[in-house]
C-alpha cells in the first residue's frame, strides 16, 4: 500500500476530521477544555445522542470542518497523508483513507495588516460557527471559560516568545492514525512545510499538550522547548510545551546568492570556535544587520536566527578552503570586537560565549579513557577471574581503563586493624577494607577525582552520553560554572553515587535536574523504585520515563561511585579512623544525610542509576562474594539498565551497530533495537 503526502482538498475533509478526532482521543488539553472526561471517540463509532452540556462528537466534527474550509480559503499549508489511488480498494481502511494530517498557518508579520481576504474569511468562519451552535443546540460541551483562559495564556506566550518580526510558520495540528505511528508519517508531514521554511529562512513553532512520546519526537524533528503554558481552573490544570523549530540547510557548499545566519558577531564567533571543534552557546544580542561579500557570496547577517557552524557545512571542500574561511572569520571577529560598535553588549555576550565554550570543552573530557575522572579503580577478589575478565572486556569495549584493587578476605586482616566498635559481619569487613584501600590509594596519589567500580558493575552502551548530561546536571545543581577541562563534573561535591541500588533526596529538597523521556531509563515495572525522587516532583515528571539528578541524602550499594580528593579524605576520616557501625555503603549514606552523628558531606545521584550490576546466567550462589546465595538458577540480568553493555557484549565485540534492550516489550520512549552509534541522548534542565 502506497501513501502520499498531498495538499488537503474539500473531499478529504471528512476523513481528515476523523483522523484528528481519533488521534486526540487521549489528549490532555481536550480532556481539560471539554466538559466530559471521556475524551474523543471517532464520530463514526459514537452515535449516541448527547446533551449540549456534554461533549458532542458531531458538533466538534462540524467545527473542525468549518476550520478546514477556512484554511483552504486562506490558502494555508494543510497537508494529509492518504492512500494513493492505485492502492487496491480492499486494502484501504473503510473508516478513513486519510491517516495523517498536518495543519499549518503561514507567517503573518505583526507589523502588516491582515489581508482583506483573510478578514472576510474570519467573518465567514464566525457565521459558520454560529450556524453550528444553532444546529446542535450549543457549543458541543466546550467549556467556554477554560477556552478563553487558554486563549489568553496562549496569546501571552506568543507575545513573549514570538520575537521574529517576519512571523512564524505555526503548526496548529499534527495527527497520525495510531495504526501508522512509528512509520515516519509524522516526519514527512512536518517536513513538507519545515523544508519550505528552511528555504525561506523562516522559523517554525508548535505547541504540545502531551508529554511522551510527543516531545521526544518533536526534538528529533528539530524543535526545542522555549516555554511552558499552564492553565489553571480550580484544581484542574493543563500544561502545554511550546517549541520553536530552528534548522537551516547546508547552503554554503551550494554557494547561494544570499545566506541568512544569526547575530553578526555571534555567528562569526561560532565559525571560528567550530574550527576549534567546540560548540558554544550563542546568545541573542542587540539586533545588528550587516551585509558583505565573500567568495562572490552575499551574506546578510540577522540577529535572532538559528545558527549553524559554518565549517560543518563546507562538506567536500579542501582543507585549504576551511582554513581560509576560519581565517576570514577570525579577522571579522577581531574587527567587531575592537570596533566599539555595541561594545557594552558585545563584551557581556563574549563572556557568555567564552564561558559556554569552556563548559563544552570540559564536557569533551568525558570522552577520555577515564570518563572525565582522573582515575578509575575496580575492586574484586583476585581469584574471581571470571568477573575480572568480563569487566576488563566490557571496559575495553567502552573505551576506558581501570586499575584493580584486590578484594580483601576478612581472615587476612589483623584484628588490631579493626576499629574498636566494629559490628560488621566478616564478609562486610572485607568489603569495607577493599573500599578503604581504593580511597587510600587515591589520596596517596593525589588524584583530584576517581571513579570506583565493583567487579560486577555494568553500564549502558552509551554511558559517555549519559555521563555528559549527568555532569551538566551536577554542575547546575552545585552552581559549579567555572569548570576546567580536567574536571567536567566540577569539584564542589564529595560523592557522585552514579551506581547503586537506591538513592533518595531529602524531603525538603527543592531543586533537581530532569531528563524527560530518557530512552535508557527502564520502566518502573523493571527496576527498583526504592527511594528516588520526591512525590511532588513526579507529579509533573513521570518517574517511569524521567531520569532525575538531585542532591542525595541516602544511597545504597556501591556498584559504582565517584569521589573527589576532599570526599575521599572525609570518608577515610569517618570510616577508617573514627568508627564503623554499619556496612560501608550504609555508613557512606549516613554521611550523605548527616545522620547517626556523622558530619554531612555533599552527595549527588541520578535516579535511576547510570551504573548497575550484572549477574551472569547460572546459580545465584555465584553472584555475590559478600552474601551467601541460593542454588536457584537464573537468566543473565543487568540491574536497572535498558541497553546493557554486558548483555550485548557479543554484538559489541563483533562491531554491530545495533544493540537489544533488556526487556522484550517496547516503551513509548525507548526502542527494542537501538542503533547505539547514531543515538543522541536527550538534554535535561534544572527545575527549582
Automatic annotation (TrEMBL):
Residues 374-471 form the Glycosyl transferase family domain. Residues 166-224 form the N-acetyltransferase domain. It comes from the Eukaryota. It comes from Aspergillus niger. This is N-acetyltransferase domain-containing protein. Signal peptide: none annotated. Gene3D superfamilies: 3.40.630.30. Pfam families: Acetyltransf_7, Glyco_transf_25.
Amino acid at each position: 500500500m502506497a501513501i502520499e503526502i498531498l495538499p488537503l482538498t474539500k473531499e478529504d475533509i471528512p476523513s481528515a476530521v476523523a483522523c484528528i478526532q481519533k488521534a486526540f482521543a487521549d489528549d490532555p488539553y481536550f480532556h481539560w477544555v471539554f466538559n466530559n472526561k471521556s475524551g474523543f471517540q471517532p464520530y463514526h463509532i459514537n452515535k449516541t445522542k448527547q446533551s449540549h452540556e456534554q461533549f458532542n462528537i458531531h458538533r466538534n466534527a462540524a467545527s473542525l470542518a468549518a476550520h478546514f474550509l477556512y484554511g483552504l480559503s486562506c490558502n494555508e499549508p494543510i497537508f494529509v497523508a492518504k492512500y494513493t489511488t492505485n492502492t487496491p480498494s480492499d486494502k484501504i481502511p473503510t473508516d478513513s483513507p486519510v491517516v495523517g494530517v498536518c495543519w499549518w498557518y503561514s507567517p503573518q508579520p505583526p507589523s502588516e495588516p491582515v489581508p482583506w481576504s483573510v478578514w472576510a474569511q474570519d467573518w465567514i468562519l464566525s457565521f459558520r460557527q454560529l450556524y453550528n451552535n444553532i444546529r446542535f443546540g450549543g457549543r458541543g460541551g466546550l467549556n467556554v471559560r477554560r477556552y478563553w483562559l487558554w486563549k489568553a495564556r496562549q496569546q501571552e506566550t506568543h507575545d513573549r516568545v514570538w520575537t521574529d518580526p517576519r512571523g512564524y510558520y505555526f503548526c496548529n495540528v499534527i495527527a497520525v492514525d495510531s495504526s501508522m505511528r512509528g512509520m515516519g508519517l509524522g516526519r514527512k508531514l512536518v517536513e513538507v512545510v519545515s523544508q519550505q521554511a528552511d528555504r525561506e529562512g523562516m522559523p517554525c513553532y508548535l505547541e504540545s499538550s502531551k508529554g511522551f512520546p510527543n516531545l521526544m519526537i518533536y526534538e528529533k524533528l528539530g524543535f526545542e522547548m522555549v516555554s511552558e503554558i499552564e492553565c489553571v481552573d480550580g484544581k484542574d490544570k493543563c500544561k502545554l510545551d511550546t517549541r520553536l523549530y530552528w534548522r537551516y540547510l547546508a547552503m554554503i557548499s551550494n554557494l547561494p546568492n544570499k545566506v541568512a545566519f544569526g547575530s553578526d558577531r555571534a555567528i562569526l564567533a561560532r565559525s571560528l570556535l567550530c574550527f576549534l571543534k567546540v560548540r558554544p552557546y550563542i546568545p541573542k544580542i542587540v539586533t545588528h544587520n550587516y551585509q558583505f561579500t565573500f567568495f562572490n557570496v552575499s551574506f546578510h547577517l540577522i540577529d535572532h536566527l538559528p545558527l549553524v557552524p559554518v565549517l560543518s557545512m563546507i562538506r567536500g571542500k579542501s582543507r585549504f578552503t576551511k582554513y581560509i574561511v576560519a581565517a576570514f572569520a577570525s579577522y571579522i571577529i577581531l574587527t567587531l570586537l575592537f570596533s566599539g560598535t555595541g561594545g557594552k553588549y558585545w563584551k557581556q555576550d563574549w563572556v557568555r560565549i567564552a564561558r559556554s565554550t569552556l563548559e563544552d570543552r570540559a564536557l569533551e573530557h568525558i570522552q577520555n579513557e577515564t570518563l572525565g575522572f582522573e582515575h578509575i579503580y575496580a575492586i574484586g577478589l583476585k581469584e574471581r577471574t571470571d568477573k575480572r575478565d568480563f569487566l576488563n572486556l566490557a571496559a575495553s569495549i567502552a573505551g576506558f581503563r581501570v586499575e584493580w584493587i584486590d578484594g580483601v578476605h576478612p581472615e587476612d586482616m589483623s584484628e588490631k586493624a579493626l576499629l574498636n566498635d566494629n559490628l560488621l559481619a566478616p564478609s562486610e569487613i572485607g568489603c569495607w577494607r577493599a573500599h578503604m584501600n581504593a580511597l587510600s590509594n587515591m589520596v596517596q596519589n593525589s588524584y583530584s577525582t576517581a571513579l570506583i567500580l565493583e567487579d560486577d558493575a555494568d553500564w549502558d552502551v552509551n554511558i559517555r552520553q549519559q555521563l555528559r548530561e549527568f555532569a551538566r546536571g551536577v554542575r547546575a545543581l552545585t552552581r559549579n560554572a567555572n569548570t576546567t577541562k580536567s574536571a567536567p563534573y566540577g569539584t564542589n561535591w564529595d560523592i557522585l553515587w552514579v551506581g547503586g541500588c537506591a538513592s533518595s533526596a531529602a524531603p525538603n529538597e527543592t531543586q533537581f535536574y530532569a531528563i524527560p523521556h530518557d530512552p535508557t531509563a527502564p520502566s518502573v515495572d523493571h527496576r527498583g523504585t526504592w527511594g528516588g525522587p520526591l512525590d511532588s516532583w513526579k507529579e509533573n515528571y513521570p518517574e517511569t520515563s524521567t531520569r532525575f539528578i538531585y542532591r542525595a541524602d541516602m544511597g545504597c550499594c556501591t556498584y559504582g561511585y565517584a569521589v573527589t580528593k576532599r570526599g575521599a579524605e572525609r570518608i577515610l576520616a569517618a570510616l577508617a579512623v573514627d568508627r564503623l557501625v554499619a556496612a560501608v555503603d550504609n555508613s557512606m549514606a549516613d554521611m550523605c544525610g548527616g545522620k547517626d552523628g556523622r558530619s554531612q558531606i555533599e552527595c549527588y545521584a541520578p535516579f535511576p542509576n547510570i551504573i548497575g550490576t550484572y549477574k551472569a546466567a547460572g546459580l545465584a550462589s555465584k553472584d555475590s562474594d559478600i552474601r551467601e546465595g541460593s542454588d536457584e538458577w537464573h537468566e543473565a540480568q543487568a540491574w536497572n539498565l535498558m541497553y546493557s553493555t554486558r548483555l550485548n557484549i557479543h554484538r559489541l565485540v563483533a562491531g554491530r551497530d545495533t544493540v537489544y534492550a533488556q526487556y522484550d516489550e517496547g516503551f513509548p520512549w525507548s526502542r527494542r533495537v537501538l542503533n547505539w552509534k547514531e543515538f543522541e541522548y536527550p538534554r535535561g534542565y534544572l527545575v527549582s
